[in-house]
Design goal:
The protein is an alpha/beta fold. The chain has a single domain, classed as Rossmann fold, CATH 3.40.50. The protein has 4 helices and 9 strands. The radius of gyration is 16 Å and the shape is globular. The structure holds adenosine monophosphate.
Length: 174
């Protein structure tokens, strides 16, 4: 007999006012803490990966948790996109705008090149600035983005508008 589908919504905890007033933080730690739910979530994410994909690109830091698990499940390699000053070798960086101020993401310059096709993954799509910057990093190294995957999409923030032309998939939307 088939197992009943897991309701992933039961494993996402809302934390109002974190990290600042007005924001409701979507806490994925209950999902990570449940082995069955975490594995099922990663398995569902893997269904969005085409056969011609070469690498999983994960965004620091919660994108690493899902991205590394996804890489292990699929047998693909994992490439980290990190906050400034963390990667040790020659890096390519991009500055991007936040709601208030600027931020920066970096990737190892030799991690990708032309002919590579990647999946980008993060835990959550909000305004899309982080994912857009990562798409640009990957493209600037000559590689192609097959799709962007998120465990959660906050649809009301319309982040996917900043990722036009790229397939976007989520497990849960709010
Ligand atoms: P954005 O660039 O606005 O799409 O924000 C996406 C990044 O910020 C992701 O790495 C998320 O982990 C984090 N983030 C933004 N909003 C939230 C939220 N409400 N709950 C949890 N993480 C968030």
């Amino acid at each position: 007999m088939n197992q009943p589908a897991i309701n992933f919504r039961n494993f996402i905890r809302d934390i109002p006012g974190f990290p600042k007033p007005g924001i409701t933080f979507k806490d994925i730690t209950p999902l990570l803490a449940n082995g069955e739910a975490f594995a099922a979530c990663v398995s569902e994410l893997s269904c969005f990966i085409d056969d011609d994909v070469d690498f999983i690109v994960g965004i620091e830091s919660r994108g690493f948790l899902f991205g590394a698990a996804l890489a292990q499940l699929t047998g693909l390699g994992f490439i980290p996109v990190r906050k400034p000053g963390k990667l040790p070798a020659d890096i390519h960086g991009i500055d991007y705008e936040l709601e208030y101020g600027m931020d920066r993401l970096e990737i190892h310059r030799d991690s990708l090149s032309e002919n590579h096709k990647v999946i980008i993954i993060d835990d959550l799509l909000a305004t899309g600035g982080t994912a857009e910057a990562t798409v640009n990093l990957v493209k600037q190294l000559g590689a192609t983005v097959s799709a962007c995957l998120f465990v959660i999409e906050l649809e009301f923030l319309k982040g996917r508008k900043r990722l036009e032309g790229i397939p976007i998939h989520h497990i849960l939307n709010y």
